[in-house]
Specification:
single chain, 249 residues, little secondary structure, Pectate Lyase C-like, two-stranded antiparallel ribbon, 3 helices, 6 strands, 11% helix, 6% strand, 5peptide_repeat, signal
Amino acid sequence: MTAMNRCLSFGWAILLIGVDPAALAYNPADLKKLIATNKCIGCDLSGADLSRKQLANADLQAATLVGANLSGANLSSAKLGGANLTGANLTRTNLTGAVLQAASLIDVNFANTNLTRTDLSYANLVNTDFRSAILNKTDLAGANLALADFTGATLNGSSVERANLVGAKGVNPGSPTQNNGVTTPTQENAPGSIRQRQSPPPIVPNIEESAPTIRNRPRVYRIPPGLGSPQRLVPGGTRHSEPTNLETK
């Protein structure tokens, strides 16, 4: 493909996802701020080249990174909640422990990216490329994963509760095991499973263990009819009869 064709293809892709090409011109002052402070909340970094940058723990909440190149960058534990990364390149990026809650990640390329323990809950991930990505213990609850491609991805213990998986490839919540893009039924907690979050079962007390134990219970004897009434000795040597209404309990 010639350079001209590549440019045309990229232009069509931008139009298809509804991004204004003029919006890809990032603010140089914002880029300098990010490099200097590792923090740029609400910045405009659209189309910026941040490939292989060390951005661990960076604070980019609500930032605009439409079409940005973040391939090979270190974004571990970065804060990207509510950010717009539509069409961004995040291949082979380190996003372990990063927070992208409610972020716009439409058409993002996450191929071969490490997303272990990443928070992607309620993110818009329509048509996102997760091929061969690592998503162990990743939070995808409530995310829009329509048409996403998980072929070859690893999802051990990830949550897809309330997620939209319509048209998604390589993942099937009805067959819990995810193994190189092939789903096979298995036990809920088997290695490689995608767990639907559930409330813990109610604690039922053990009735036998909780029941009180009665020990050394005093015995009461019944006096057979005709043997008279029980007597007690009173001062003076006389005996006094007692009522005979004793019963065995």
